[in-house]
């Protein structure tokens, strides 16, 4: 593409090399994760240090809080998280479980609103957290809402990573699961993202179709998958409907 700025793309690739599992990286690690040469990785890292997005102690590099400004511009432009937050707070208080909203970004879901009640996962989830869409209830709701051409391309190219012994990693089976989700209007994922975690999700629809998904997550100690659906689906659907009503105003 004539208008594609490769240096910008590489700089963003360096920023995305850092995550919850890799908060600090050496130059060699950044080069390996991004596929850049050490010389190129060094130039990008030192540029990001000079701009205030990355800090370094001479050996290790880490993101600085200023990098949040990059995502804040996007979140500030969205009215959806602000509209959803009070409804998620009421839902969390009602069901006494953590509730979230996410949107689809390629093959990942990105959390844009969240109300945690207790920690039930080994990783901390916050606004901006990303998970593979195929292994999450919100991801399946959002994938099921895509048109057939988009979904065909996704299933042909996506890396369906196995995160637990229960994760669906076969494209044909995932398509079948998405057909079920599309038909029933909700998704229940049982320990596919992490052992001990169940999640129930429904879509949030705007004037042009599904714009986000909301979920309730519960530990398996709450009961079996059927009881989770029976206990949580109705209040979750009610919360989604209230968010949709606010979107129409």
UniProtKB/TrEMBL annotation:
GO terms for biological process: 3,4-dihydroxybenzoate metabolic process; negative regulation of DNA-templated transcription; positive regulation of DNA-templated transcription. GO terms for molecular function: DNA binding; DNA-binding transcription factor activity. SMART domains: HTH_ICLR. PROSITE patterns: HTH_ICLR (PS51077), ICLR_ED (PS51078). InterPro entries: GAF-like_dom_sf (IPR029016), HTH_MetabolicPath_Reg (IPR050707), PcaR_PcaU (IPR012794), Tscrpt_reg_IclR_C (IPR014757), Tscrpt_reg_IclR_N (IPR005471), WH-like_DNA-bd_sf (IPR036388), WH_DNA-bd_sf (IPR036390). Residues 66-249 form the IclR-ED domain. Keywords: DNA-binding, Transcription, Transcription regulation. NCBIfam families: pcaR_pcaU (TIGR02431). This is IclR family transcriptional regulator. It comes from Actinosynnema pretiosum.
């Amino acid at each position: 593409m004539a208008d594609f700025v490769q240096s910008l793309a590489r700089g963003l690739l360096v920023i995305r090399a850092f995550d919850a599992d890799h908060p600090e990286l050496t130059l060699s690690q950044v080069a390996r994760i991004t596929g850049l040469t050490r010389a190129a990785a060094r130039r990008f890292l030192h540029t990001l240090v000079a701009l205030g997005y990355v800090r370094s102690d001479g050996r290790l590099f880490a993101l600085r809080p200023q990098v949040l400004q990059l995502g804040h511009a996007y979140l500030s432009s969205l009215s959806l998280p602000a509209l959803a937050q009070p409804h998620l707070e009421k839902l969390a208080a009602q069901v006494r479980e953590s509730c979230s909203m996410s949107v689809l970004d390629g093959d990942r879901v990105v959390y844009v609103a969240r109300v945690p009640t207790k920690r039930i996962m080994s990783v901390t989830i916050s606004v901006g957290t990303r998970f593979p869409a195929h292994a999450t209830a919100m991801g399946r709701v959002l994938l099921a809402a895509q048109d057939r051409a988009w979904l065909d391309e996704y299933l042909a190219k996506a890396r369906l990573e196995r995160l637990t012994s229960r994760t669906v990693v076969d494209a044909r089976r995932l398509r079948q699961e998405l057909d079920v989700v599309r038909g029933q209007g909700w998704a229940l994922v049982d320990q596919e993202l992490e052992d001990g975690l169940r999640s129930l999700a429904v879509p949030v629809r705007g004037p042009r179709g599904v714009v986000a998904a909301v979920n309730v997550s519960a530990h398996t100690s709450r009961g079996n998958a059927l009881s989770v659906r029976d206990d949580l689906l109705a209040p979750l659907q009610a919360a989604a409907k209230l968010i949709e009503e606010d979107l129409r105003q």
